[in-house]
Each structure stands twice: as structure tokens, then as C-alpha cells.
Amino acid sequence: MMRDATKHSVCRATRLVSGSRRRFLVWIGAGLAALAIPRPLWSVEDPKASCRETIDVLTMLYHGEVESHRRYEAYKTQALKEGHVNIAHLFAAMSDSESTHAKRFSEILAKLGVQVEAASQDIQVGSTKENLKYATDVELAEIDVNYPKYLARIRDEQHSKAIKYITYSWKAEQQHRELIKDIQSGTGIFFGILAERFRSTKVRYFVCQNCGSTLTALPEEKCPVCTFPVSWYKEIKLPTL
Ligand SMILES: [Fe+2]
Ligand SMILES: [Fe+2]
Prior knowledge:
By secondary structure, the chain is mainly alpha-helical. The protein has 2 domains: about 30 residues; about 150 residues, Ferritin, core subunit, four-helix bundle (Ferritin, Up-down Bundle). About 60% of the residues lie in helices and about 5% in strands. A 3-stranded antiparallel β-sheet has the order 2-1-3. A hairpin with a 5-residue loop joins strand 1 and strand 2. Helix 4 packs antiparallel against helix 5. It is globular and about 55 Å long. One fe (ii) ion binds next to loops.
């Protein structure tokens, strides 16, 4: 279903050695055939070796996205219990977005020959007021500190698809930051008033199922983050307990 799913991204080191390696293998193969040796004796280079940093970063990000998804699901439930349906709706949208990021990272890892599985994690849940504060801190940390570091770590390996989808994820986190900015100030003494105001505001959430972009209105034609058609957006329904 993914538009560029057929494109095969490889790390730069792999591309550089592939031509010379092929010639080398042909030459060795001919030599061995001449010596009537029944099986080749050379060891095949591990393609994972040239993508080591990319694999490490994607694996770490995958687990982080799964954790965020589960955390926002738990926060959504807590918000519903407290009667903050619209805040629960926002958490539901963010949860869906994080789950999309996890999916994309696991797909890229699978193409690199790495299978990842979500581990069980302990999710701490506080009051909605506390959860909003924690969500804000996590989102801000991802945007301002972590993503630039991850991209710098994998830059030299030049795995274009990994770079692209990590950047998409970063952009979606920026959108999350904008979405929670309004209620960030509500984690202070005025939370009750602010939550009440937010409760009466009708908001719709749409999440791109390719890149996790999270918007409150459908874009005109294309996703502003990944440029996939608008049909890739799914509306997140108002959650219920
Ligand atoms: Fe994410
Ligand atoms: Fe998108």
C-alpha cells in the first residue's frame, strides 16, 4: 500500500562495495570452478554491518514510539474517567500517530533483516493534569534534543528511507507540540478552567496513516509532511470508555 514500498533503500557503504564485490565474487567463483571445488569458501558480507547505526537508532525509536503509543492510550482512558473527553480525543490522535511511526520503523528494520517486537512496559499514569505535563515534556524533549541527534548519528550511512521517515516522525511531533501548547499552560493552577474551556470546544483530529502527521482539519490535497494523497488521512473518532 505504501507508495515507495518497492524502492529498496540501502546504506551508503553497501552501495559503494556492491559493484567491486560483485566483480570480486565473479573472479573468485571462476577460480574455484576451475579448481573443481564443490562449494564456495568465501563468507558473505553481512549487509547489516554497513547500517549498524541506522538499525540501532531505528530500533530505539521503534521502542520509544510503542511506549508513547501505550502511554497516550493510558492517558486517554484516564482523561475519559475524569470526564475530559476532548483531552482524551487529543491523546487518541497522538496515540494513533505514534503507532504509525512504530509501524514504519519496524517495516524499514524488516527490510534490513531485523525483526523487532514490542516489549511489555510499565506505564505510569497520573491525573490528566499530570499526564498532560508529562506528555508535553516528552514531546519537547524529542523535538529539541533527541531527533537532531538521531539524524546526525545515521547521516553517514545515508539510508534515505530511514532518514525520511525519522524526519516525518519529528515533524509529526512538532504538530503534537502545537496541539498541546494550548493546554500546556493549563497544567498550572487554572487547569480546571482551561479543561472546561477545552471540553466545550469542538475539535476534529486527522492522522496520516503513512507518516503520522496529526491535523485538526484535512489538508487540501496532499499530506503537508509526506506529500501522500489526502486519502491517507484517517479521522480519529471521539473516544468513549
Ligand atoms: Fe512519534
Ligand atoms: Fe503524511
